[in-house]
Design a protein that fits this description.
The complex is a heterodimer of chains A (about 190) and B (about 300).
Chain A: H1 2-56, H2 64-79, H3 83-104, H4 108-112, H5 114-149, H6 153-160, H7 173-176
Chain B: H1 3-36, H2 44-71, E1 75-76, H3 82-98, E2 104-108, E3 115-121, E4 124-130, H4 131-136, H5 139-154, H6 157-191, H7 198-241, H8 244-256, H9 287-292, H10 298-308
Parallel strand pairs in B: 2-4
Antiparallel strand pairs in B: 1-2, 3-4
Helix pairs in contact in B: 1-2, 1-6, 1-7, 2-6, 3-5, 5-7, 5-8, 6-7, 7-10, 8-10
The chains are: A mainly alpha (about 190), B alpha+beta (about 300).
């Protein structure tokens, strides 16, 4: 009798380990897929930038430093390795691009140029896509990390040595600043 | 209720609706057999009605979206047009944010701003906008609308709504046909010697009332079902864009246009983001107005969205 109870407990335990392990694996793959999605969008942005520079450089000769800044940021972003560094370089690139678009506002004939507006729309969309894929990735990565940390799943994590997923974080100090909130409730 | 529970309850509600619908057809068939007497011992009308119910459910499930798209004269986007290109981009952004496949995108040449989503599941879905919507709204507002439609797709609202649209259509058709042939038939029948007792008459009366009321009831059902889902789609849409105010301002702009969206007819009204009948129902908040509206009063939706942004 004792033996049967022991066997039953053992069977339940094994089934639970299998189920927990499989759900962790499924989450892990979703995280990887989420990361690939970000990568696809980053690539899209890298491909668009040379076009943009080519289109605006004739008119914006006097903004050479900004243009080189964008190109340098792009090249650094392409060669970045690892999630943390990639995130940092991509944020630099976002900043450089924002500066460039702010300058475009000073050139009425650029703003009226159909190619420029088209490229601008594509880049705005790409920025959004990067943002949303980052949001999606961070959500799923957080879910994966929580699943690893809760008891009793954390025991399995130790045995099969799962690693926590790194979040795609904003590293630029200016974006980290706490917004000023007026808490004077009237 | 979150989006996953909603998806589950929508799947159940879809089965429930289809069952009720087929039972309704069977009831009509039985009524006919009862009225005319089963020929050669086979309940021929019941069998025909059952087949009709099953076939139209099947067609509705697999081809209903195509029927709706062609009935509204929706055509594919022209990506060389900057505004339509922008809409396509916005849809792709929302497909990334929601993690579901990109729906097919269509446009209707209608100056009134409106939009709807249809299809049977996230893998087979379409989103339709009017030209007026693209002209009227800015990028952020379009994003809000796209997120709203994406949520309808993600939680399987579209499947239930699609079947309701198709079923309402065929119920209206059959009930109309049954009513006319019945009145004609009963006149002819009364010339012969009637052999029906009082019980049969009562059954006939109940059955008649059901046939007459069915179109109205199915319409009310569609309205009820759709009204409840708009708030959730607004909320989960805002969760995707993290910008509830953009959708709120889009709804305000849609509300300002009270003329009807001509290319969207009665049967598909409950699919749209705002009431295409343009009866300015948003202003009325009485029980009766609420009962007949396919959408909750738009100002209530705007208020709920503003609450999400901590503005109220």
């Amino acid at each position: 009798m004792m033996l049967w109870i022991l066997l039953a407990v053992l069977a339940v335990l094994v089934l639970w380990v299998i189920a927990a392990y499989n759900s962790l694996i499924s989450l892990k793959n979703q995280v990887l897929n989420g990361w690939k999605q970000i990568d696809v969008q980053l690539k899209r942005r890298h491909d668009l930038i040379p076009n943009l520079i080519e289109t605006v450089k004739g008119v914006m000769k006097f903004e050479q430093s900004t243009l080189t800044q964008v190109i340098e940021a792009r090249n650094k972003a392409i060669s970045a390795q690892g999630i943390a560094e990639k995130a940092a370089q991509e944020n630099m690139l976002s900043g450089a691009l924002r500066q460039l678009f702010a300058l475009v506002e000073n050139y009425p004939n650029l703003k009226a140029n159909e190619n420029v507006t088209k490229l601008q729309e594509e880049l705005v969309s790409t920025e959004n896509r990067i943002g949303f894929s980052r949001q999606f990735y961070n959500d799923i990565a957080t879910k994966f990390n929580i699943a690893q940390q809760v008891f009793p799943t954390n025991i399995i994590v130790g045995i099969f040595s799962f690693k926590a997923a790194e979040l795609f974080e904003i590293t630029e100090p200016s974006e980290r600043e706490v917004p000023k909130v007026d808490l004077n409730l009237e | 209720m979150n989006i996953y529970e909603q998806a589950l309850s929508n799947r159940r509600a879809t089965w429930f609706t289809v069952t009720i619908f087929i039972l309704f057809f069977v009831a009509i068939g039985i009524g006919f057999d009862f009225h005319y007497g089963a020929g050669a011992g086979i309940p021929i009308f019941t069998i025909i009605a059952l087949a009709f119910g099953v076939i139209s459910s099947y067609i509705g499930y697999y081809y209903g979206d195509k029927l709706i798209l062609s009935s509204t004269h929706a055509r594919e986007l022209d990506l060389n047009d900057p505004k339509q290109r922008q809409w396509q981009n916005v849809m792709e952004e929302m497909s990334i944010a929601s993690g579901i496949a990109l729906p097919k995108t269509f446009i209707i040449d209608d100056p009134d701003p409106n939009a709807f989503a249809t299809g049977r599941d996230p893998g087979h879905s379409s989103v339709v906008v009017t030209k007026g919507l693209l002209e009227e709204l800015n990028r952020d507002e379009l994003q809000g609308v796209a997120a709203h439609e994406m949520s309808h797709i993600k939680n399987f609202d579209i499947r239930l709504m699609l079947l309701l649209a198709v079923l309402i259509g065929s119920i209206a058709l059959v009930s109309d046909w049954a009513r006319r042939s019945l009145f004609y038939g009963s006149r002819r029948r009364s010339n012969k010697s009637g052999n029906s007792g009082p019980v049969a008459l009562i059954i006939l009366a109940i059955w008649l009332i059901a046939v007459i009321l069915a179109p109205l009831i199915s319409q009310l059902l569609a309205m009820f079902v759709s009204r409840r889902r708009e708030f959730l789609a607004d909320a989960s849409g805002a969760e995707l864009t993290r910008n509830p105010l953009a959708l709120a301002s889009a709804l305000e702009k849609l509300d300002a246009h009270s003329q009807p969206t001509r290319s969207i007819n009665q049967g598909t009204a409950h699919l749209c983001i705002c009431d295409p009948k343009g009866r300015a129902l948003g202003a009325h908040e009485g029980r009766v107005a609420n009962l007949f509206a396919t959408h909750p009063p738009i100002n209530k939706r705007i208020e709920a969205l503003k609450q999400m942004a901590y503005l109220k």
